[in-house]
Amino acid sequence: MSELAQRALEGHVASGARIIRWLEDGERAGIEALKELYPKSGRAHLVGITGPPGAGKSTLVDALIAENRSRGRRVAVVAIDPSSPFSGGAILGDRVRMQRHATDPDVFIRSMATRGQLGGLSRSTFEATAVLDAMGYDIVMVETVGVGQDELEVVDLAHTTLVVNVPGLGDDIQAIKAGILEVGDVFVLNKADRSGADDTERALLTMLHLRGVIEGVWAPPLLKTVAVREEGIPELVDACDAHRADLEASGALEGAAATRGEHFFAELLRDFAVEKIIASATARAFYPKLLESVRAREIDPYTAAEQLVSAFEPNFDD
Prior knowledge:
This protein is an alpha/beta fold. The chain has helices spanning 3-9, 13-24, 28-37, 57-70, 94-97, 125-134, 153-157, 172-177, 197-211, 233-250, 252-283, 287-295, 301-310, and strands at 45-50, 75-81, 107-113, 139-143, 160-165, 186-189, 222-224. It has 2 domains: 1-37, no CATH class; 41-250, P-loop containing nucleotide triphosphate hydrolases (Rossmann fold, 3-Layer(aba) Sandwich), CATH 3.40.50.300.
């Protein structure tokens, strides 16, 4: 094992941060380090936090860090920020909200940009959580962008998904319609001291009732919090712990890890295949002429793509 990977396994923060940085940049050194660390992962409790913008997710994560640390746990956070579609840059401001934990050696906070990736996560989020898992963090929290109803990738990543909502963001019926609320393991009504909290609570309880209750299957609870004052946070951590215990008892925890690995593999396979096909296609002699035909509307893009792909005859012999 390389010295850098070994130091990351020993919990050395700078080594883990460097590997994650390399993975974000697509550096080969990061991939090689992850190959060594991946078999050592699989012990951390991965908790996803998602919900609409303005729900107070970052403040909630800050409170969850404090509560988990009070229980003697090492905590890592991957906070995803949206990238500008023009400059490609991102504010990466979540660490500002969690500044009080900056000097705690058992807390690791990493902001990552989406870099155009849809679904609420960064392209390298899976890799980063695997590194932090191998480094020995007990809890790895992933805070999604907060883009709305489509950030469902977190479900494939996390063992426990927290769906955060707040009163006053609009029609309470919208909460019932949003597909994202159909996938939560624990529901959080944050800023529960606001006006209209009771109406939002009733709407969310109605949604949970419509999901139904299946005997022997985890029934997602709804908890009220005021994260800025850390009210309801111990109960929320208890609910996350209870969900993990339920997954372990049912054997679903191991299955979730297998599914996560399969998803990671499928993502990489698609990326590698697309890169190789495009590189080979653009190197073909007839590619410029085919592209010019599309530009001149002499051929439609569908037919052009079909002709180009048909030129490949991959051999997948064992």
